[in-house]
Amino acid sequence: MSTLQDRLEDLATAAPSGGAAPGDLWERGVRRGRARRAGTVATVAATVALVAGATVVLGNPDRGEPQPADVPFEELHLPEVVHAPGTWSDEEGPDGPLAAVGVAPRTTPEGLTGERGGLELFGVSAVDGRSQWLDLPGIDEDDRPVIGWFALSPDGRKLAWTRHLPGRRPDTNGPLTGWSVMDTTTREVLELADPAAPRLQETASDLEFSGDSRYLLTSYEQRGGPRTRGHQFVAWNVADGTPTLLEGPGHYWLPNLGSAPSDVVWSRKRMVYRADPATGARSSYSLPQEVITASWAPDDRGFAYIGRDGDVRGGPWRLYAGRTLAGARDRVIPVEDLDPAQLLGWRDTRHVVVGRFRSTVHVVDIVTGEVVEYRMGGEGDQVNSPKLAGDLWRNALITPPEPEGTSDPRTPFLWGGGVVVVALAGALMLRRRRRRA
Predict the structure, then answer these.
(1) CA 156, 157, 163, 167 torsion: positive or negative?
(2) Residue 238 counted as domain residue
(3) Is residue 334 part of a domain?
(4) 6 and which of 2, 89, 163, 364 could share a cystine (Cβ 3.0–4.6 Å)?
(5) Which residue ranges have biased composition labelled Low complexity (predicted)?
């Protein structure tokens, strides 16, 4: 509360010069004093509003139009490059089929200046190439899990991951209990588990889907089983969870997984196996080289495999391919500067996609040997080469949007808070000076 003397001093300071009636002077002084105070309040209010607006815009970026939950295959695409979300991004999704899945660091603000971080899964939309963090159902978002094995189906409509009991320490996983498969369109989750073994022994085998996206392929051991040669190879129907035992215990090495437009494909040494879990039908094919991985082209109109001379220890891996399996047996595709290790899919019946656990992949013409290189490593500190939806190689690649959330969202707020403090301090100093005048 100001005293009468203070008010009179303020009014005298603001009084207009020149002749005027005493009554007019008082009224003008009152009006000017009110206007000055209102201007100060308006300035501070505008500053606060500007800071708040900036914080809202930067902390919660426009998510744009909702993505279609389900779209035709022809409208699904791989991105030209795979970006990780900005480490500070809080966007989770995406809705609909995925083009790629990867692992990258995520940072979350705590308080005004603190932060916490960790590795998280991210997914890339097959609709528009946008990258977002994956919010896996059934997992508390504040209890970030240790990432185990995970897989993306070739059609991009299923995502699978290992399920564990809690570990003894926060940064470890406990025993394997099964697998979860999420429909990326409906976000419904199917939990898979061996009813005869509530706790399982993991192997070094990665999770993979069959080439037709109908089965999740797992190799695991039952606890208490043989110390060696105890793993079994099982295909799980991702529609109803039905398991099919493809190989029982007894093999020393794990199977080398392959793909085909239908059925499950795997290999051992120089033999390639193909089985239909639904009918039990099986076939096998002998090849002249040790098979690392094998794949049939769409409609079975081509065949490729990565082979190594079984008689040469540590020999190089080579790409063999042809229009038929018989034509591919001994036909090496001479590709310079290419160390083949993976068959990631087919662009068509003539072009196979070859990788080597890197972000760079090569599309090889199995007739001419011509190679087109794709450097798919995008922004973000990605831990692994992303897993791609192999079927989508048949569609054109799209340019993805730049990632958002690459900087601390609190920075504008902290700067804006400083501006507010300076504005308030300035207003108070100006008022004091006028009182002293």
Answers:
(1) positive
(2) no
(3) yes
(4) 2
(5) 12-23
